[in-house]
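Project standup — Tuesday

K.O.: blocked on the structure for the chain from last sprint. Re-posting the sequence here as requested.
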Amino acid sequence: MYVPAWFREENLTVLHNLMRQYSFATLVTFDGSRPFASHLPFLLDTEQGEYGTLRAHLARANPQWQQFQEGQEALVIFEGPHAYISPSWYEKQPSVPTWNYVVVHAYGVPRLLDENGLLKLLFDLTATFEAAVSSATGYHLPEDYVRKQAQHIVGFEIPITRLEGKFKLSQNRSPQDVERVIAALRDAENSQYRAIADWMRAAQIRTASAEESDPPARK
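H.V.: unblocked you, prediction finished:
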């Protein structure tokens, strides 16, 4: 991924937060002649490996999992909110339109899970995503039912070997322009536009905090 210095995000906590918040991601592999993509919910375990480990599953009928046995690197793309940025919002004119967005690319070599690993994944997935929509007691499936259904899917994990974060949030514009863009986005009816405004504000806060903790040397 092309990442200009302005937009490079390397804070592991920030990257992990986006991956968890926007966990429905795109798995991309290469079968030797063409790319292949599947769209899947992923779980992130930050305690395993330097950058964490991803877990997910595919339908057994999906041929993509058979590529895992070749030991090739895969790419998982996590995409957060995005928004068109009108040049009319800038103080300096003329200016060009652009697009703000936040994405994380995670790389690693997938490996298949055994039956116990797959069952744990399925229960963890249900517990994680049901927590956002169910009552406090949650929703529980009978284990024998899960085992029967699991025959039709394949579980896998990807120990992450490298992460790329591109947070294009108007960092190359003046502070005045950034404020004007945030205000315009927050006035929009589109929820993604308002979300990008929140990411822009959070980036400002992180930058200010970093500058306070590491002030320039006095002359």
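K.O.: great, moving the ticket to review. The CA atoms of residues 24 and 48 lie 20 Å apart. Residues 5-207 form a domain with the Pnp Oxidase; Chain A fold (CATH 2.30.110.10).
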